[in-house]
Amino acid sequence: MARESAGSASRPMTLSPERAGSEEAAKEAALRILARGPRTEREVEDRLRGRGYHSDAVERALERLRRVSLLDDRAFVRSFLRTELFKAPQGKRLLEVKLRRRGVSDALIRDVDALLEEDPDLTGRSLASEGGRAAAGAAQLRRRYARLKPELYRRRMQQALARRGFAWDTIREILGEDT
Questions:
Q1: Would 79 be classed as within a structural domain?
Q2: Of 7, 48, 140, 145, which residue is most buried, by most CB within 10 angstroms?
Q3: pLDDT score of 176
């Protein structure tokens, strides 16, 4: 029996032909992947294929997990947005890039604004709007750069907010209020 959890990138694992074609084995492997943390459907699919499961076994296993809502990209996006925004307020542009990297569909990414508005905790902390997130991000950064000279402070704030994915118009608006 091949070890599935070793997962070394330098040495691909080999599964027996019957295990690689087994929907049940693929589903169990997917459940172990999901037990480690929220994952998108594409991430789970890529990992299963990387472990050597056959495409049809992977598809059937993913379909079973979708039917019981254990694999749900919309729920993943909600969880991802809460985690990311509570950690560090970010602009929509950066959130979209991160979601695309994780394999979230463009259709779901277009719904990010609606998902943000649906979350009462994000709305309550003013993190649902781009301006609210920028203001919260600027408040975090002010402490870091508070001792800098005004011109250096302004430049560092602009750069930091840009790295967090905020548009220049939003940055100017936030820093304009700041000076």
A1: yes
A2: 48
A3: 87
